[in-house]
Design brief:
Layout: E1 2-5, H1 8-22, H2 27-32, H3 39-50, E2 53-59, E3 62-70, H4 78-92, H5 96-109, E4 115-123, H6 132-147, E5 150-155, H7 161-166, E6 170-176, E7 183-189
Parallel strand pairs: 4-5
Antiparallel strand pairs: 1-2, 2-3, 3-4, 5-7, 6-7
Helix pairs in contact: 1-3, 3-4
InterPro entries: Acyl_CoA_acyltransferase (IPR016181), GNAT_dom (IPR000182), Trichothecene_AcTrans (IPR052523)
GO molecular function, one term: acyltransferase activity
Enzyme class: transferase
């Protein structure tokens, strides 16, 4: 398994495809896009315009996983916000307001301490259980430890909470999303010295 940084321009389409497959049964994605249509375009837009960095898990020649991260203090540049709008509108249509609610809810609950934000991480279902998720986490978490910075995420599946706990995260809050949305688990990982 090789982990390499993603190139936002050249890898976004592949990231969208692998995350779409990885999140096929995700409660938050199903709440955002009940029909499943637009899922891949949404993830492409997130990879290309919203999040600062990505990591790819490659097994042989095949992309099997992707993670999207924001460094401490990161704010999406205004130009990228404008560039993301067509992609979100095409992906979500009238449900784009649900995406705005989600972002607002998550942003207001983020920790006040400097932290790396793990926005998305997923492994193609055909490759799950082979260590891609752990491998993608390992490099960024080692970086967090070396700079003494926390890592933070929201787990949209309760069944994934133990996976993150294995990597040092702990649940800080259960978030019930508005408009009859699902529960999400906010998790933080303090740096290991």
């Amino acid at each position: 398994m090789i982990i390499r940084p993603a190139d936002k321009k050249t890898d976004a389409t592949r990231i969208g495809a692998v995350l779409s497959r990885a999140f096929h049964d995700d409660p938050v994605v199903r709440w955002l896009l009940p029909s499943g249509e637009g899922r891949e375009r949404m993830f492409v837009t997130l990879a290309r315009h919203v999040h600062a960095l990505g990591d790819l898990a490659i097994d042989g020649e095949q992309l099997v996983g992707a993670a999207l991260w924001d460094p401490p203090g990161y704010r999406q540049p205004p130009l990228e916000t404008l560039r993301s709008l067509p992609g979100f509108l095409m992906a979500m249509g009238g449900r784009v307001t649900y995406g705005q609610l989600l972002q607002t809810e998550f942003h207001r609950r983020r920790p006040r301490v400097p932290h790396w934000y793990l926005a998305e991480i997923g492994t193609d279902p055909a490759a799950q259980g082979r260590g891609a998720g752990s491998a993608m986490l390992a490099g960024r978490l080692a970086h967090c430890d070396s700079e003494g910075t926390a890592a933070y995420l929201e787990s949209s599946k309760e069944s994934n909470v133990p996976f993150y706990e294995k990597h040092g995260f702990r649940v800080t809050e259960e978030i019930r999303l508005p408009k009859a949305g699902p529960t999400v688990w906010a998790m933080i990982r303090e740096p290991v010295s």
